[in-house]
Amino acid sequence: MLPPQFPPLPALTRAEAEFIDRYLEVLDQVGRINPARGSDTYGALRAAQALASRAVALREALVLMHERGESQIHAETLARALRLLDGDRRAGRVALPQEPSS
């Protein structure tokens, strides 16, 4: 049986790909910290500690883009990449969960 075929990522510069990867790492950590979804303080503490280094890496990715003259963020292309990399689910962990219906 063959593994599932995923659609190809849009063409990204190396700096854009780094930006997307670091952004998703930040989302993952913020999702782990979200008090509406968490279960223990230690897990949230570890995620908060990791968030600091992930935020620095995200900043560095943006610095690299800027230094390379990539002055525009191509939102449509980057949004496609985020969707293909499960960004909707990962960003959803940052939001408040829906209230149970009565």
TrEMBL record:
<protein>
    <submittedName>
        <fullName>Uncharacterized protein</fullName>
    </submittedName>
</protein>
